[in-house]
């Protein structure tokens, strides 16, 4: 087993230790302070040594442990430590590798100085408070600054040695900001404001050292950034990514990319959570749609992509990056592309960061609760929202496409739902955000942005319970015979036997007026109904009834069963209301399509009863039931109400396990 030693004095050093903990290796991690050691998560095969070592102590450690490799990941400004490590490796004939922090560019308007002395010289010619973020080691030098105790606020690690250094330098307790990073840009902005700093002093570190966040905060607050230049890089030093490649080539180690899947909220940076902003800022590579990259990017490599396979390819191929952030609008758990992406990231270490969803945002704007709201997405999908609106007090819908919200409102009004209250949120979170609210009948014919979400509130929802009144259906057109219809009482029993689920795929064979098809579609609101009918006058009536209920999840199949059904999607449930003598062939096709299908069939004639009874015995159904339903309806004769019996209906239920 390989033995490696890492001097983990930087963020990159700790990241490297985390990577090595997953490999077939014994790791010794060296930290200069106990606090630095506490930042390294314990693990099997890892020992953490704390405390500063001189060259002799390092030499003794290397000679005793006989490491295959020592990796120097100390701070760029810790030149003396690096010199000791190099000397000890040379004396013990131990292989040495320098992990060099990548540099960064000093932004326009900042003041670059070569060292602490130059920073002091510059600040002595200024007035105003100073936020010092260079740590505790240089405090003794900075104490020579004129007005040091009054002007300087020092941000240092919350450890005893750092606090002691502040006190020895002469800082008041109120001027000591003892806290552990990393610090977000927002945190830096708040801190600069809290001490009213006119100047921010930092070392010229890289992104991992928080330089970009400090530079952004200084610019945001109007403070002057003073950047102390870093020492010349150690000869032969390589980047973090190149270090991983070197370890992979020499020891066969493999690296798992770190991927943050981030919900950025509805449309602007101000709506991103602090956690999301931090994760995006820490990433070396951002991936997402163009408008999301504009919101979240800092100075990273970016790729515009939103298809799961394309995102995975980018992560696999970008060997120069180890930390990725994939951006999704809204919340990653709410109708998000993250659902398809996450199963494909099994080769990565994934962190999921939720965001503010368009549902919560729009409901807040509308002053509405969303705890009982039904959520649907019509974005890139075909379907009707009418059944959902009919049966619920509150429905939230994501819409897409050209004037998708306008088409939805027109559909509601045309389906007799003009009274429902509609709130449309266009470009939520953007500067161009617009919230429009009104009855569907008032908003119909309107034009809305493609990037819209809709909240629909219905004060009088209808139950999707079985047995709609017969009067709800058209029975015949002018000068046309009455089309047969499964009556309300029979329909209620049929639906109870079918036991549909919201996503069921249903066949209604011999659909007639479509009364059963309509109830199937209302109950299987996320599913699909095929209404099979061969009579032209019935097909026309069937289409009219479907349109009157606004049901887009019914497809009319014009033809005779079973021939017309050969290419249909396999059903989970089927109702046979009319078979034209082909019931055995129809059931054979149903079983061939789906051996576990649930079939309910009705019969009036003795011949159909005989055929269905034979099917019970011959087709291998394991669960069967036959019910004879007798219904009588009241009619008025003079002053009396008399019950008139209807034809008895035999209802067959057949299921295969």
Q: What does this 3D model show about the protein?
A:
β13, α13 and β14 (301-304) form a beta-alpha-beta unit. The chain is built from 24 helices and 30 strands. The chain starts with a strand and ends with a strand. The chain is 33% helix and 24% strand. The protein has a seven-stranded mixed beta sheet, sandwiched between helices. Strands 6-11-10-7-8-9 form a six-stranded parallel beta sheet. Strands 3-2-1-4-5 form a five-stranded parallel beta sheet, sandwiched between helices. The chain is elongated, with a radius of gyration of 36 Å. The longest helix is centred in the first third of the chain and has 14 residues, at 79-92. The model has no long low-confidence stretch (mean pLDDT 89). The protein has 657 residues and is an alpha/beta fold. The chain has five domains: 2-98, Rossmann fold (3-Layer(aba) Sandwich), CATH 3.40.50.720; 111-228, Nitrogenase molybdenum iron protein domain (Rossmann fold, 3-Layer(aba) Sandwich); 256-356, Tetrapyrrole methylase, N-terminal domain (Cobalt-precorrin-4 Transmethylase, domain 1, 3-Layer(aba) Sandwich); 359-457, Methyltransferase, Cobalt-precorrin-4 Transmethylase, Domain 2, CATH 3.30.950; 470-655, Vaccinia Virus protein VP39 (Rossmann fold).
